[in-house]
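Input record (Table S2, row 365):
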Amino acid sequence: MGEGARSFCGKEAVVTPAIEQAFRHAVSEAYCFVGQTAPNPAVGCALLDHQGRLLVAAAHHRAGEFHAERLAVERARALGLVEKIHTVVVTLEPCNHTGRTPPCTEILLTTPVQVLWIGCRDPNPFVKGKGAARLEAAGCAVYWLEQSRNGGEVLSLCQALIAPFVWRMLHRRPWITVKQALNRRGDMHPPAGQKTFTSRESLCFAHRLRRVTDGIITATGTVRADKPELTVRYVSDHVARKRTLVVCGQEKNIPAEWLCIMRERFVVSLCTDCHSLPQLLSQMSTLWMLVEAGPTLLKVLHDVGLWDDWLTISHRQSEENCEENKSAYHQPDQWYVTRQHDITPISLLPEWAQCQQEQACFPVL
Ligand SMILES: NC(=O)c1ccc[n+]([C@@H]2O[C@H](COP(=O)([O-])OP(=O)(O)OC[C@H]3O[C@@H](n4cnc5c(N)ncnc54)[C@H](OP(=O)(O)O)[C@@H]3O)[C@@H](O)[C@H]2O)c1
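Output record (NAP complex):
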């Protein structure tokens, strides 16, 4: 029996290197689609043979399309590998109900699966546990990462993948990440004639955040000062992704031509009172929103606690060393993430390793 299968025989669930690797494959596959699955969560799935070797990894691409498990099984079938499926590794419990697509449990039961490893429980109380129970009743051995003694690291990755989905389900609003760039004087204002002052690495980080989020919250002060494009540049974007844009402030303070361009690019909403922002956001299908606004709006959001994590990009160069000045790239900006919760979806981004973390204020997940 191969390494991937050996631990399943004992009573205690032990994550072998093969299972851990499979979870990492499933998470990285799912990460490719973070920012386009809303209102569904990003989910990944890996199929292993009886020796724990990876056959196929797949992820849910967008709402209405195949769930990760089904796509993985279809791919295995197309490759003639379906009869080799022994172990299924999924970042989120497989569904057991018919939504826009058939139940994943039934798809999995068309294969010779014997072992199922699950990352996170479904947060929906009406769905939770039912997928696992269905597969167990059909003779499949089901293991949960949370019950394993050594799966904490990959469990955190799986939780980060669905954190915005869980938050939305529990609190009826999307996860909100604030991005704030500070110059060395601790000031948010770019030098005259510039829209930005951070390093190229910081710009890539910021644009990667735009890619993985479902929309942007900005405000009229920033709009008037910068007329920002708010597109994903520096990194590739999802194809034909139309995100949400919320502009806080009064319409009369938004340049008409800018608003016209934004309406083509985004689904635009205006918000004249931030206290109604959660209600406004609850009506949208967004899971994760990025705030890109000036100090006035950020103070309001901070004061009312309407944020989940706060990324501060601290630029240490003098103003002359702007983005266009290559010498600025040699002195990296510092990135700080202050978190309200134990888990953050920012931890999925490659830049996370360079972020200094503030302590979580209270656990919610
Ligand atoms: N460094 C960075 O990370 C960064 C990011 C973005 C922008 N900026 C810079 O920030 C500067 C602009 O900052 P700013 O403070 O003047 O503008 P801002 O924060 O972007 O926008 C301020 C506007 O927000 C609206 N607002 C305030 N409180 C509100 C509330 N409770 N509910 C709804 N709307 C509310 C008001 O609009 P009305 O007056 O229309 O009511 C207010 O004038 C620019 O220089 C820009 O380049 C820097």
